[in-house]
Design brief:
The chain is mainly α. It has 6 helices and no strands. The radius of gyration is 20 Å and the shape is elongated.
C-alpha cells in the first residue's frame, strides 16, 4: 500500500474537526429542540472514528523521517501513543453511538437518569423544560 505520510496533518485535522462538530451536535441534541442533530452528530462521530484509522496509519508512515530529527524521537513516540489512544477512544464512542442507535428509546430515559444525579434545577432542565415554558427567552 502506498505511503500516506505526507497527508498526515490534513487527515488528523479532519478527524479533529469531525469529532468537535459531531460532539457539538450531540450536545445540542440533548436539548430535544433540534431532532436532526442527534443522527447528524452520531454520523460525524462515527466518521471521525473511521478517519482516525487513516490518521494513525499516516502517522505510522510519517514517524520514520520525523524520528531522524535530532532530539525528536521521544516527542514522536509520545505523539504516536497519544494518537493511538485517541483512535481507541473514538472507536469506543462510535461503538456507543451504534449501540444507542439500536436501543429502544423507551427503555432508556436519559433526561430522568441525568436529572436524578444533578441538583435541582438541573442544567438539563434549563435546556429542555424552561425554553418551552418561556418561548421568548
Amino acid at each position: 500500500m502506498p505511503s500516506i505520510a505526507e497527508f498526515h496533518p490534513q487527515i488528523v485535522h479532519f478527524v479533529i474537526a469531525l469529532f468537535y462538530v459531531g460532539l457539538a451536535f450531540r450536545v445540542v441534541s440533548l436539548t430535544g429542540r433540534l431532532a436532526w442533530t442527534r443522527p447528524a452528530g452520531a454520523t460525524l462521530l462515527i466518521l471521525a472514528a473511521v478517519a482516525s484509522l487513516a490518521a494513525v496509519r499516516s502517522g505510522e508512515d510519517a514517524h520514520g523521517p520525523a524520528e531522524r530529527i535530532p532530539g525528536a524521537r521521544e516527542a514522536v513516540h509520545h505523539h504516536e501513543e497519544t494518537g493511538e489512544r485517541a483512535r481507541n477512544v473514538l472507536l469506543a464512542v462510535a461503538a456507543l453511538e451504534l449501540l444507542l442507535e439500536h436501543t429502544d428509546p423507551d427503555l432508556v430515559d436519559f433526561e430522568h437518569t441525568l436529572g436524578a444525579r444533578l441538583p435541582d434545577p438541573t442544567p438539563l432542565d434549563l435546556l429542555t423544560r424552561f425554553p418551552r415554558r418561556f418561548p421568548l427567552l
